């Protein structure tokens, strides 16, 4: 959540930062009005409290000296009633302010480029060589059906569209990729966790999925539980409402989970194949760190995911997202896009984001340093989206006869 005190202290600067993220001017005006009203009411309440305290001291003196306390008693009673009314007003205004603020995105970093859409993202670096073919490379769904790896029809029969089933080598390769990614991340200093695949509303609010993105979540009927859209939710909130000893930081966490998303608003996009599914596997990285260390950790996480792709022999590029393509909780994001020869384009396979204190404020994740509680910085990143990695291997390692080679580093996992 954004810092409401910062909003009250310097509205123009914070409003300009949020406008870069596409926040509507009317919402900002509403935030400003409610914030100012809450601040004024709170000041009035504090003034009344000071008057009441002053008269209460006088009351003791009047009683001791045998003076008439009736007028004083009446004034104290009136001030008490007035204070109660102001407290109620402040509570209502601050609850309204918090409710609106929960739907306001994070401030973008100053070095994030301005832009309205993904078309204005900036390619920072291209790593690895694209494979060359003496034939027209096929897309992964054709390769999957030819090799008997993917069964889209049975996936739909079991659930609905945007679900699929894998068989044989594909199922084994999916499992091999999960194990390889977890091992790779552990060697880079990430501690492996196994977490629930469901989360309650408080947990999802902590990382920013609720209340704004409820339509994209699968809700469990009659339960305060949702299927998780990413392990970021579970890993980050392991430390919600906790104060972490500073010598424990940074906390570097990794986990495999299936992820579940309704993909609201994506109708017509990537309807074929594995790119955009309601259920998919992902290995996630999460870091919780001191504020001054988060940029260094961010670079390490980007390097970890990039090196993982390199180890699999997959050409990819690092892309800095512009303000218009930046996620709700992110202050800064670098996407990794892998080359898919069948589609003849780079496609996103990982997003690494620094949310700074945005999620920590919502989830109350703090650390103690010099006897002071400080909001942590939280970071998250895919390492990697497993299904998309499978797609990339199928398309990059395809042979002219339609068969698919297995990358050397995965053979022992097969």
Automatic annotation (TrEMBL):
Gene3D superfamilies per the UniProt record, alphabetical: Bira Bifunctional Protein, Domain 2, Serine-tRNA synthetase, tRNA binding domain
Enzyme Commission code: 6.1.1.11
Catalytic activity from the UniProt record: tRNA(Ser) + L-serine + ATP = L-seryl-tRNA(Ser) + AMP + diphosphate + H(+); tRNA(Sec) + L-serine + ATP = L-seryl-tRNA(Sec) + AMP + diphosphate + H(+)
The keyword Electron transport appears for this protein: no
Transmembrane annotation, as ranges: none
Chain coiled-coil ranges: 69-96
GO MF terms held by the record: ligase activity
Residues that bind ATP: 261-263, 348-351
UniProt binding sites for L-serine: 230-232, 284, 382
Keywords, ordered alphabetically: Aminoacyl-tRNA synthetase, ATP-binding, Coiled coil, Cytoplasm, Ligase, Nucleotide-binding, Protein biosynthesis
Source organism superkingdom: Bacteria
Subcellular location as annotated: Cytoplasm
Primary site of residence: cytoplasm
Domain Aminoacyl-transfer RNA synthetases class-II family profile stretches: 139-407
Pathway: Aminoacyl-tRNA biosynthesis; selenocysteinyl-tRNA(Sec) biosynthesis; L-seryl-tRNA(Sec) from L-serine and tRNA(Sec): step 1/1
Free-text comment on this protein's domains from its UniProt entry: Consists of two distinct domains, a catalytic core and a N-terminal extension that is involved in tRNA binding.
Role of this protein: Catalyzes the attachment of serine to tRNA(Ser). Is also able to aminoacylate tRNA(Sec) with serine, to form the misacylated tRNA L-seryl-tRNA(Sec), which will be further converted into selenocysteinyl-tRNA(Sec).
HAMAP family referenced in this protein's UniProt entry, alphabetically: Ser_tRNA_synth_type1 (MF_00176)
Family of this protein: Belongs to the class-II aminoacyl-tRNA synthetase family. Type-1 seryl-tRNA synthetase subfamily.
Assembly behavior: Homodimer. The tRNA molecule binds across the dimer.
Name used for this protein in its record: Serine--tRNA ligase
Organism: Malaciobacter canalis
């Amino acid at each position: 959540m954004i810092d409401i005190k910062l909003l009250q202290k310097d509205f123009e600067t914070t409003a300009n930062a949020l406008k870069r993220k596409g926040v509507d001017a009317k919402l900002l005006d509403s935030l400003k009005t409610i914030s100012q009203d809450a601040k004024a009411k709170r000041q009035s309440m504090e003034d009344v409290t000071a008057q009441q305290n002053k008269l209460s001291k006088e009351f003791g003196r009047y009683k001791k000296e045998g003076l008439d306390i009736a007028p004083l008693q009446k004034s104290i009673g009136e001030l008490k009633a007035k204070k109660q009314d102001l407290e109620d007003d402040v509570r209502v205004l601050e609850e309204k302010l918090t409710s609106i603020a929960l739907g306001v995105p994070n401030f973008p970093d100053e070095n994030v480029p301005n832009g309205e859409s993904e078309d204005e993202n900036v390619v920072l670096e291209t790593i690895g060589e694209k494979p060359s073919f003496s034939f027209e490379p096929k897309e992964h769904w054709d390769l999957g059906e030819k090799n008997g790896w993917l069964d889209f029809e049975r996936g739909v029969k079991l659930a609905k569209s945007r679900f699929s089933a894998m068989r044989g080598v594909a199922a084994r390769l999916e499992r091999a990729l999960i194990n390889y990614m977890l091992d790779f991340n552990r060697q880079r200093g990430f501690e492996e966790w196994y977490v629930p695949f469901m989360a309650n509303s408080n947990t999802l609010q902590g990382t920013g999925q609720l209340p704004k993105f409820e339509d994209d979540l699968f809700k469990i009927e009659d339960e305060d539980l949702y299927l998780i859209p990413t392990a970021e939710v579970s890993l980050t909130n392991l430390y919600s409402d906790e104060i972490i000893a500073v010598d424990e930081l940074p906390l570097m966490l990794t986990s495999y989970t299936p992820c579940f998303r309704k993909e609201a608003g994506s109708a017509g996009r990537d309807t074929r194949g594995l790119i955009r599914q309601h259920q998919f596997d992902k290995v996630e990285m999460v870091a919780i760190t001191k504020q001054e260390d988060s940029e260094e950790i961010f670079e390490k996480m980007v390097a970890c995911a990039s090196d993982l792709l390199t180890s699999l022999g997959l050409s990819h590029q690092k892309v800095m997202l512009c303000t218009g393509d930046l996620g709700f909780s992110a202050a800064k994001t670098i996407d990794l896009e892998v080359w898919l020869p069948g589609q003849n384009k780079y496609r996103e396979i990982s997003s690494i984001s620094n949310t700074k204190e945005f999620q920590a404020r919502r989830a109350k994740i703090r650390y103690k340093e010099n006897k002071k509680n400080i909001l942590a910085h939280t970071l998250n990143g895919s390492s990697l989206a497993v299904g998309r990695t499978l797609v990339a291997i199928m398309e990059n390692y395809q042979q002219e006869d339609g068969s698919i080679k297995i990358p050397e580093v995965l053979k022992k996992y097969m």
